[in-house]
Write a structure and sequence with these properties.
The protein is mainly α and 133 residues long. The chain has helices spanning 15-18, 25-48, 57-77, 82-102, 121-130. The chain is built from five helices and no strands. Helix 2 packs antiparallel against helix 3 (57-77), helix 3 (57-77) packs antiparallel against helix 4 and helix 3 crosses helix 5 (121-130).
Length: 133
Amino acid sequence: MPDPITGEGFDAPTPEVAYMGAPDLLQEAADLTRISERLQAEASIAGQKGEPYEVDEHRERLYLLRRAALADRLSLAYPDAEDFLTDAVQLAHQLAEFDREHDTHVGPLGPSAIEWDPSHRPYVRQEYDHWGW
């Protein structure tokens, strides 16, 4: 039976492999805060000018990927924290939905592959592993 926590039974990298070169958790959280603030500021400026805000698909996806990966890593580091597990599941699904809508996955298996049933967490690991630092 596939295990979305360990990655066993999925055709995706294990968490240890996928996150091998990842920044530490605090650094990643700080980076994501800065990215989020920048994206919000850009949207606000466009709104103040009365202009439509055009989302940069690449930057939005990278933000979603890194956010989902951080949530996955936190849930692995703190398995008793139910909120971290909930976030990991929801953000993995959100990334998969974005990739379905925009056809932006980079790994060998797309977000609709049966492989990711019952969880998109291994999908996040595949995509993070294929993201070129």
